[in-house]
Every structure is written in structure tokens, then in C-alpha cells.
Specification:
The complex is a heterodimer of chains A (281) and B (381). Chain A contains seven helices and 13 strands. By secondary structure, chain A is α/β, with parallel strands linked by helices. Chain A has two domains: 218 residues, HUPs (Rossmann fold, 3-Layer(aba) Sandwich), CATH 3.40.50.620; 42 residues, no CATH class. Chain A has a nine-stranded mixed beta sheet, with helices on both faces. In chain A, strands 2-5 form a two-stranded antiparallel ribbon. In chain A, helix 3 packs across helix 4. By secondary structure, chain B is of the alpha+beta class. Chain B contains eleven helices and ten strands. In chain B, helix 1 packs parallel to helix 4. Helix content of chain B is 51%, strand content 17%. At the A-B interface, helix 2 and helix 5 of A face helix 1 and helix 3 of B.
């Protein structure tokens, strides 16, 4: 049937280096110099799902991202995985966008491409982790949308089986195209990128659209179009503190347990199956 | 002259190989070393990724890239498993001989499966009488009743027990001055009389199989000869000089990068006298030495690889790179071990394996003494 599938991806700082990210206590800016940028790991599961659907039904896998121009290199990796083309939506006016303003710009980009059957995202990003963009995209586009998809089978345009994870189990759904869904890690294992894929990536279409290229209302874009703003940013105090107590062993044990409990550590589980002070034979 | 840098595709290639290595190789490298098993099952995956046939043209199922890209793959793999590095390096060695000297039929018959990693290649040159005495080969090939009959014993052969395609160098006669003439045959696993023999228990580069291969009256048709009769010295020396030593240099660059990364990690984490040992100047001096060894080995190795890709003679440059990189890897692994104190000898840390792998790399592809003779010969001529 040939489906046009858009996968929205986000370039983020590589989570392996999160311990190297620091926050300037005065300017409150996040310092991430020297930390490589990668495709948000869950988004790779979305690309994998899109490629699988394309392998089954034919069509096209299109990557889309709203990011600064230097995201080009990161997005090439998605093309190297097997996606067919990429649209990077990039403009200074998009800076400072929250999820609503981001999803608005992405939705306009998807509408400009036109005739899109399916939009996939990861459930959340490794940096912001709001998990809001996929649902917002569905609303802007007027498509049905589901979040947390762990299984999906596209049988035909009007018959899509989906399974989502909920707190105590799973829910099964049937849907119709067009739709938006956000995939969880459990849905698949993303393929390794082949070296041949790398060689082909640069030859694939790569389009950059700015504010002017899209039919946008400035009121909904960037900082101005963002109803939510981040609050204070600070590093938690990880310093240790010591306390010297001149008390008996028995008193010390009682006190330590009391303090641990006060800090939310479930001591009960430590004693399950044995009586304190006695060996459980 | 521009400063040393890789192009964008090479940087991306490194990234995809590193992703694969960190998922599939890094977590298992210690186990392969301890149990001394070669993960043959990874060859098809490396084939799919394009690593197995990295320098083979696309028409034979390869990736169609060059020796700089091959070096990147070997370095990334050997950063975590030099053992798998030498198994792959030797696979390339057998393939290079077929690619460079095989006829069209041989290339089409063997290269696609070797590029796909569904079959593994090896190159059998060294004999109990010595590896560097190349012309003193004792294994023989005799032409009897329209067939070549191969007899002999090869030893210290990497991939000995896993290779499906085994490229053999044998003596097929003597020239007018009574010097041996050597020829090369493509043998296959399962041919009657072709059997792996003794398996070595190595100090390092474990996770690759090294051992004997015996040929007892192995009969093959003339179509199994690689190149022409008497081409053996040329084929063998070219493979070892520009593919084997290149691979060993790349493997040692990988070990050296491991040393730098482990030394930095440990010295920043280990707190002594209330501060990380990275703050101590004595430690910093060692870190500097290890870094310089790594950088110099990297530059020498990639320069030689880029010369080969440019079609320039590069055997001497690969000898220089292999000599320096293997000695540097052994030196720096020892320094990394020293700065870790007691932890350096604990196998929970990979540095002991780095040292054993570096020491085992010294004689692989000829010893440092032999490399120096090659380098001196080229310098004095």
C-alpha cells in the first residue's frame, strides 16, 4: 500500500556523558561543551519501527527534527540507518520553544510535506523527558494518537493493531491511519547502522526549512509561543556529612535505623525472615 | 599540509563501529579472553555491517572502502578485544591475497561469502622452521597427474581452527640458482587431508584461535592456484607486509587507546591522600607518556594506511608503524598497570589483558628486530 511515515527525532547530549554536564550557578546555563550529540535513543526505536513497516508495505521513511543547524550531522545517522530523507526545521525564532511550540512547528512541517499516513516518535527525550510531543502532534494534526506503544502491526490502512503498556499491564487497540504514536524501548531492538548505510546517507535528500518556509503563526512559535518556562536550574548538593556519636553499639544501631527510616529507606525489608539479633536457622 | 583529520564519512563510520563494539564486544571481551574462545558467531554481523569486506569492491560483495577505514574498524574492535581484532585482521589477510592476486573466477567464488562473514579466511605461511625465513618453506606442492598434491605443516596460524578458506604458501620447485620457488593455493576446510592440528594456549590475543594446520596429500586442481606458479613470495610478502603488519599496528593503536582511557578513568576515580591520584605529578608524567605513545602510534599507522590507499608503496611505513605501535602498547600497558597499583593486576580491570595482548602483538607479523631490519634496509638502500 506504500505508506509515508514521518519519524520525529531529537538530537540530545549523549546520556553516557551526563555526569560531565555542569550548570553555571550564576547564569543558570547548562554547560555541555565537548559532549557529543546523538539521536535521542528511544527515537531510534521509532526509526526501526518505521523501517520495518516500510519493509512490509513499501513507502517512505522521512525524518523530521526541529533543532539548530548543527544537528545535520546527527540526523545523518538516521539516514544511515535506512531512512529515505530528512527535514530539519531550523530558525532562530524557534529557540526557547517548549513542547507545545515544538509540536506546532513539527506539525506544520508534516503538513507541508503532505499526504503523511503515520507519524512516529519515541515516548520521551533523554534530556527533557516531558513525553508530551507525540500527543500534541496528534492534536495539531487532527490524527488519532497513542503513547507508549510496545507492539504495532499495520495490516491495512484501516486495520492497525497496537498494544500499549500501562501501570499494571497492557492495553490493546485497533486504529486507522492517519495516526501518531510514540513507541517505547520494548517495541524492538534498533538495527546497527551499516557502513554501506553511512556511505549512502550523504547522498539522500536533506532539506532545511526556516520560519519563512513554513506556514506559521509567530504567536505559537519559540519562546513567545511557549506557555511553560523552566523554573530554577541547579545541581543537587551531593556533599557528604559526618556525625560522630559517642554511644553504645546497641544505641548506635537503633539510631542508624531510625535515621535511615526517616530518610525513606525501607528497613523492614532488611529484616524479613529473621529476628533482629538472632540468626534465622 | 593539512593537520591530520578524518573526513565526515570516516568519522561516522567510526561512530557506527564503536556503537556495535560497545554493545556486542566490550561486555564479552573479558570472557572470550578467559575462556580463549573466538566469537565466530559475530562474523556474519560484522559482515552485515560491512566490516568483513571493508576494502573489497562492491562487485565482490564488499563495502568498497580502503585501508584507512579498515584501520578504523580494527582500532575500534581492538580497543576492547585485540583477540577478535587479530581474528578479523587475519580474515582480511586471506581476503587481500585473493582480491589482489586471484582471477575473476576465484574472486567471485570466495569473496562474497568472506565479505558476508558467513565464511572465515586465513593465511598459512609460518612453519615450525620459522616464519621470517620466508623462502625456507618446507611445505610442498607437487604436480602429479594433473593435480597439485600439497603436503606440510603450518604453525602459529591465526584462525587455524575456524577458517573455511585457507590460503597456503608452499614450495613448488627450485629456480636455476637452486632457490625455492613458492606458490600459493586456496584450500578449503574439509578437503581430504587438510586438518587443523595442535591448538596453542597463548599469553595474549586470546579470543582468537592460533594453531597448526596439517596437509597430508591434499589434492587440488590447478584452478586452486592463486596467481601463477612461483608467485608465492610476492603474494605472501605483499599480504604480510601491507595488510598483516597494517592490521597489527591498528590493533596496537586500539590497545593504546584502551590504556589512555583506562589510565584517565582510574586516576580520576582513585582517591589517595584525600584527592584523586590524577592530581599527583608522578601519575601525570605516566599519563603524558601513554598519551604520546597513543598519538604517535595513531599518526604512524594512519599515515601508512592512507599511503596504501593512495597507491604508494607502504611496506616500510607499515613496518615503522607496527614496530612503534606494538612496543608502545607493551610499554604503555605496563605504565597503566603501574599507576593502578594493586588494582592493575586484578582481572576485573582490563589492563592486564591489554598488557598480555600487547606482548603477544610483538611477534605477530614479525618481531621488532625483523621490523628494524626492514626499516634499516629501506633507509640504507
Amino acid at each position: 500500500m506504500g505508506l509515508n511515515i514521518v519519524v520525529c527525532v531529537k538530537p540530545i547530549p549523549d546520556p553516557k556523558y551526563y555526569n560531565e554536564i555542569t550548570i553555571d550557578p550564576v547564569t543558570k546555563t547548562v554547560k555541555r561543551q565537548g559532549i557529543p550529540t546523538i539521536i535521542n535513543p528511544i527515537d531510534k526505536h521509532a526509526i526501526e519501527k518505521a523501517l520495518k513497516i516500510k519493509e512490509q508495505h513499501g513507502g517512505k521513511v522521512i525524518l523530521m527534527s526541529m533543532a539548530p543547524p548543527d544537528a545535520q550531522e546527527t540526523l545523518l545517522e538516521g539516514l544511515a540507518m535506512g531512512a529515505d530523507e530528512t527535514y530539519l526545521l531550523s530558525d532562530r525564532k524557534f529557540a526557547g520553544a517548549d513542547t507545545l511550540a515544538t509540536s506546532y512547528v513539527l506539525a506544520r512541517g508534516i503538513q507541508k510535506i503532505g499526504e503523511i499516513d503515520l507519524v512516529l516518535t519515541g515516548t520521551e527525550s533523554g534530556d527533557g523527558a516531558t513525553a508530551q510531543v507525540s500527543s500534541q502532534l496528534g492534536e495539531w494534526l487532527g490524527f488519532s494518537h497513542l503513547w507508549g506503544v510496545v507492539n504495532c502491526e499495520v495490516k491495512s490502512q484501516d486495520d492497525i493493531y497496537l498494544k500499549t503498556k500501562i501501570e499494571n499491564g497492557y492495553m490493546e487497540w485497533s486504529g486507522k491511519l492517519p495516526m501518531v504514536f510514540a513507541v517505547s524501548r520494548e517495541i524492538n531492538t534498533p538495527r546497527y547502522t551499516s557502513i554501506m548505510g553511512v556511505m549512502k546517507a550523504k547522498k539522500k535528500p536533506f532539506t532545511i526549512w526556516s520560519f519563512q518556509d513554513l506556514d506559521l503563526d509567530e504567536v505559537y512559535v519559540g519562546l513567545k509561543g511557549s506557555p511553560t518556562q523552566p523554573g530554577d536550574i541547579f545541581s543537587p548538593d551531593m556533599g557528604r556529612k559526618g556525625e560522630i556519636l559517642k554511644i553504645s553499639k546497641e544505641e548506635a544501631v537503633e539510631l542508624i535505623i531510625e535515621k535511615l527510616r526517616a530518610n525513606g529507606i525501607n528497613i523492614e525489608s532488611f529484616f524479613s525472615g529473621c529476628v533482629r539479633g538472632e540468626r534465622n536457622e | 599540509m593539512e593537520f591530520f583529520k578524518f573526513n565526515e564519512e570516516q568519522e561516522m563510520l567510526r561512530k557506527v563501529v564503536r556503537d556495535f563494539v560497545e554493545s556486542e564486544i566490550a561486555p564479552k571481551a573479558a570472557e572470550w579472553d578467559e575462556k580463549d574462545v573466538c566469537p565466530v558467531e559475530l562474523f556474519p554481523t560484522m559482515g552485515e555491517l560491512g566490516i568483513c569486506g571493508i576494502f573489497v569492491p562492491e562487485e565482490y560483495g564488499g563495502t568498497g572502502l580502503g585501508h584507512v577505514e579498515r584501520t578504523i574498524c580494527l582500532e575500534e574492535i581492538s580497543r576492547h578485544s585485540a583477540g577478535l581484532g587479530i581474528a578479523l585482521m587475519t580474515h582480511h589477510l586471506g581476503m587481500a591475497a585473493i582480491l589482489n592476486y586471484g582471477n575473476e573466477e576465484q574472486k567471485k567464488k570466495y569473496l562474497p561469502e568472506l565479505c558476508a562473514g558467513t565464511k572465515v579466511a586465513g593465511l598459512s605461511v609460518t612453519e615450525p622452521g620459522g616464519g621470517s625465513d620466508f623462502m625456507g618453506q618446507k611445505a610442498t606442492g607437487e604436480f602429479i597427474d594433473g593435480q597439485w598434491v600439497i603436503n606440510g605443516r603450518k604453525c602459529f596460524i591465526t584462525n587455524s581452527h575456524i577458517a573455511d578458506v585457507d590460503v597456503w604458501v608452499v614450495r613448488t620447485g627450485t629456480d636455476a640458482k637452486d632457490r625455492a620457488t613458492l606458490s600459493v593455493f586456496i584450500l578449503e576446510k574439509g578437503m581430504s587431508g587438510h586438518t587443523p592440528g595442535r591448538k596453542e594456549n597463548k599469553l595474549g590475543l586470546r579470543g582468537s584461535v592460533t594453531g597448526d594446520i596439517n596437509c597430508v596429500d591434499v589434492k587440488v586442481g590447478p584452478e586452486q592456484m592463486l596467481g601463477k606458479e612461483g608467485d608465492g613470495a610476492k603474494i605472501g610478502m605483499a599480504a604480510i607486509g601491507e595488510v598483516g603488519r597494517a592490521g597489527m599496528a591498528a590493533i596496537c593503536v586500539g590497545i593504546l587507546r584502551g590504556c589512555v582511557e583506562e589510565a584517565v578513568k582510574f586516576s580520576k576515580e582513585r582517591i589517595v591522600y584525600g584527592k584523586p591520584i590524577a592530581k599527583l605529578q608522578a601519575i601525570q608524567l605516566d599519563i603524558a607518556d601513554i598519551r604520546v605513545d597513543h598519538e604517535a602510534a595513531t599518526l604512524l599507522t594512519y599515515r601508512a594506511a592512507s599511503m596504501k590507499d593512495a597507491g604508494k608503496p607502504s611496506a616500510t611505513e607499515f613496518s615503522i608503524a607496527k614496530y612503534f605501535a606494538s612496543e608502545a602498547a607493551a610499554r604503555s600497558a605496563r605504565k597503566t598497570m603501574d599507576l593502578m597499583g594493586g588494582y592493575g593486576i586484578i582481572n576485573e580491570y582490563p589492563v592486564g589483558r591489554f598488557l598480555r595482548d600487547a606482548l603477544a602483538s610483538l611477534p605477530s607479523g614479525a618481531t621488532s628486530h625483523v621490523q628494524k631490519l626492514i626499516i634499516a634496509g629501506s633507509t640504507l638502500k
